[in-house]
TrEMBL record:
Source taxon at top rank: Bacteria
Species classification: Bacteria, Pseudomonadati, Thermodesulfobacteriota, Desulfovibrionia, Desulfovibrionales
One term of GO molecular function: hydrolase activity
Residue intervals of the Calcineurin-like phosphoesterase domain: 9-183
The protein's name in its UniProt record: Calcineurin-like phosphoesterase domain-containing protein
Alphabetized Pfam families for the sequence: Metallophos
InterPro entries: Calcineurin-like_PHP, Metallo-depent_PP-like
Gene source species: Maridesulfovibrio ferrireducens
Length: 223
């Protein structure tokens, strides 16, 4: 890979199905892997260890966060690996920062990683205050923004987060990668922000984020 080009693979909604590693041709050579949430299904014993072993064998540079299907032990595991992104930020390259907020607003299924809209909004604001100056910003968020192409159920109902949308409208991150709503794989825009939902990882969907000559670009990839 040329020195002036860096690539990150962003995906989510793994749900313990790790076959996706064979569906991503860039996984070995990518600068790193970004996981937006739902690594497990209620975090059974050994699930995170299997996830870590499988992914780190292909690419050891991992940043990840819990989704609504993950329990608190997921965040603790990631912290111990210095890989947690939930409520944290990293500088991926000079002037290029990423911030993460996992979990989701309440669902009809009573999953373990659900919080109120108010809490999600507070987390977004509090994490943003930590990051300081930047030139370009990536937001990794598990819940998709409300009333977009990324938050629709199969019946057309929008079920995304109002607080995530409000934050994007206010801050205008350059690139947003979300998930949560499996059937709404796609891309959209909110103002100047390009927003993506790559769908379930097992379906081969991911976002290829590229930094070339100081400019961030993103492409929705996979089936």
């Amino acid at each position: 890979m040329p020195e002036n080009i860096m690539n990150w693979i962003a995906l989510g909604d793994i749900h313990q199905s790790l076959n996706f590693v064979s569906l991503i041709p860039e996984i070995h050579d990518a600068t790193g892997i970004i996981v937006t949430g739902d690594i497990t299904n209620h975090s059974p014993l050994g699930a995170m260890e299997k996830f870590w072993e499988t992914i780190s064998d292909k690419n050891p540079n991992i940043l990840a966060q819990a989704g609504n299907m993950d329990r608190n032990n997921v965040t603790e595991f990631l912290k111990n690996k210095n890989a947690n992104l939930h409520l944290e930020f990293r500088e991926l390259a000079e002037g290029i920062k990423i911030m993460g907020v996992g979990f989701s607003i309440p669902t009809p299924f009573g999953t373990p990683g659900e919080v109120s809209e108010k809490q999600l909004g507070q987390w977004l604001e509090e994490t943003y205050k930590k990051i300081g100056d930047y030139n370009q910003l990536i937001l990794a968020v598990h819940d998709s923004p409300y009333n977009t192409k990324l938050d629709m159920l199969s019946n057309g109902q929008h079920v995304g987060s109002h607080s995530v949308r409000a934050f994007i409208e206010k801050v205008q991150p350059d690139i947003v990668v979300s998930g949560h709503i499996h059937e709404s794989k796609g891309e959209d825009v909110i103002g100047k922000s390009r927003i993506f939902n790559p769908g379930m990882a097992s379906g081969g969907g991911y976002v290829l984020i590229t930094l070339k000559d100081g400019k961030l670009e993103a492409t929705l990839k996979g089936k």
